[in-house]
Amino acid sequence: MEENRGIWVFIEVTDGKVEGVSLELLGAGRKLADKLEVPLAGVLLGHDVRKISAKVIEYGADIVYMADHAVLELYRTEAFMKAVVAMAEKYKPEIFLYGATPNGKDLASAVATDLSTGLTADTTMLDVDPEKRLLEASRPAFGGNIMATILCKKHRPQMATVRPKVMKALEPDASRKGEVIEEEIHLEESEMRTKVLQIVKETTKTANLAEAHVIVAGGKGMGDKNGFMLIHELAKTIGATVGGTRDVVEAGWLPHDQQIGQTGETVTPKIYFAIGISGAIQHVVGMKNSELIIAINKDPDAPIFDVATYGLVGDAFEIVPQLIEKFKELIKEKGGEISYV
Amino acid sequence: MHIVVCVKQVPDTKIIKINPKTNTLDRRSAPAILNPYDAHAVQEAARIKSRTGGTVTVLSMGPPQAVAVIKKSVEIGADRGYLISDRAFAGADTLATSYALSKALEKIEQESPVDLVICGKHAIDGDTGQVGPGIARRIDIPPITNVIEVSKINSDEKKIVVKRKQLNGYELIESQIPCLLTVEKEINDIGYSPMPNMIKAARYEPVIWSVADLGEVDRAQLGLKGSPTIVGKMFSPPRPEGGKKIEGEPTEQIKELMKLLEEKIDLFCFKA
């Protein structure tokens, strides 16, 4: 355990692009590495990913451990796990972070089992105790009503998956220097028990809620399905993803996968509009970690105003149409397009 | 086909209450239920069985009263169930849980080879989703997480094709059997259970195994002792700053809001 040194971040690559959460983790990992005075490394797996290593360094890594192999072209648990476990056993990191994405969670769970170490899921706060070299990984527990800090005292590496859009990426610095270490990993396609036959992108959804940069959410206060169209209109104007409360979903105004809250998605966008939402704890636990919360509600005592950065007391049907007009003007002024993709 | 479904008894987090003074869970406030994702896992196993024939076995770990979730699973369509229950399992994190369940799976496997293991995507009390892939690693079968459809299953060729939910869409994955799936809620709808299942469930007595029944087990890997992670502290989540209320006429409110947003304009991504 004493010999384990360094912070590692799993670099998730989709279609040749680094996932945002991996860049965010390089930012968070940089802070931990500086506190412990150890190097920060990115673990980059895939096929033809060499060109990506420069980006990993620009975003804060000192070292990139890279495995470039045809078998690693698309994510598969057994191939990726084998490569990651081999690297971790060889270089022995003390902390290893993954994005809490479907692939990141899948990989981390398998790797933790093979390395017989502790793994904390869906972390939203990270810190480190430099004396004890202990990772303090905090996450919402029991539906988000309380936070729990999870520690892994006797096993290394200390591992955690971290929710997207919670940590901050550094500004990329092209002058940063780093080392790329290429690992030879023995992998045979014939030994793989799974195969990705096809990848289907669903373009109907603007963006997955959990990954969304801006969310416009509506509640019962929108009256009916027709009134809820105003939510869609504002979202369309600013390129946001639409969400709703449990009431809205149960009334059939929105499909299930757009429900935000304790029994739906937990979201952490940069900007969250809560319109006609009273702010029951059910809903609030799913959105309160958003960076900027703008609430619009008729009732000045609605609990949503306790968590809102800016609260507009008033009728959504008067306010929102004007807001849409203002945003349209602003977008025109700034160059005509708004996009988070 | 022999399908084993791993299920968990959980407090219903929809109605659970937290004591705001002590930050502790008021367990009495929440009824214990079958983890909702696991209910879909049992339902999917029953659906596969209706196509291929075979047996659906349910496996759970928990206190003796967790037999209730096995009986519930029989109601949904499982044929039989085992509960592993022992003080030695108490306090297990995901690593120790996957170890204990894999040992029970090995014992089930001795009686009748297992073709498919199905788990819920995660349990609503822990929200980790780590136990399923952990079990798969321990018994060395491929895990496929976040499954939204079992598209094809061929028990003669030992092949399965499933849809796996991804960030923006899904993947079609082919795997050898045996493998382990973790399923999302949209994989099926759970309707009312057929009357014969209800009658069977009411009379069904699940088998309870202790550690001693599991054969060769490394006790150091069980329960609290076998858990690398511990809860350091509990605290109230930090509240977002703010609470700036803007009142007045809509036009004035919007004017003020847009002025405030100007300072945060970087949060919006404009493309020239």
Please describe what this structure looks like:
The complex is a heterodimer of chains A (341) and B (272). Chain A has helices at 20-36, 53-58, 77-91, 102-115, 225-238, 246-250, 281-284, 304-307, 316-334, and strands at residues 7-11, 13-14, 17-18, 40-46, 63-68, 95-99, 119-123, 125-129, 134-141, 146-152, 158-162, 179-182, 194-201, 214-218, 241-244, 271-275, 292-297, 310-313, 337-338. Chain A is an alpha/beta fold and 341 residues long. The longest helix of chain A has 19 residues, at 316-334. The mean pLDDT of chain A is 92. Chain B is α/β, with parallel strands linked by helices and 272 residues long. Chain B has a single domain (2-221), classed as HUPs (Rossmann fold, 3-Layer(aba) Sandwich), CATH 3.40.50.620. In chain B, 28% of the residues lie in helices and 31% in strands. Chain B has 6 helices and 16 strands. Chain B has helices at 36-52, 67-76, 94-111, 131-138, 195-203, 250-263, and strands at 2-7, 9-11, 17-19, 24-26, 32-34, 55-61, 80-84, 116-120, 143-154, 159-166, 169-176, 179-183, 207-209, 229-235, 244-246, 270-271. A 9-stranded mixed beta sheet of chain B has the order 11-10-9-12-8-1-6-7-13, sandwiched between helices. Chain B has a two-stranded antiparallel sheet with strand order 2-5. Chain B has a two-stranded antiparallel ribbon with strand order 3-4. In chain B, helix 2 (67-76) runs antiparallel to helix 5 and helix 3 crosses helix 4. The longest helix of chain B is centred in the middle third of the chain and has 18 residues, at 94-111. Classes of the chains: A alpha/beta (341), B alpha/beta (272). Chains A and B meet through helix 3, helix 4, strand 7, strand 9 and strand 10 of A and helix 3, helix 4, strand 9, strand 10 and strand 11 of B. Strand 18 of chain A pairs parallel with strand 15 (244-246) of chain B. Chain A: This is Electron transfer flavoprotein subunit alpha/FixB family protein. Chain A: Pfam families: ETF (PF01012), ETF_alpha (PF00766). Chain A: Belongs to the ETF alpha-subunit/FixB family.
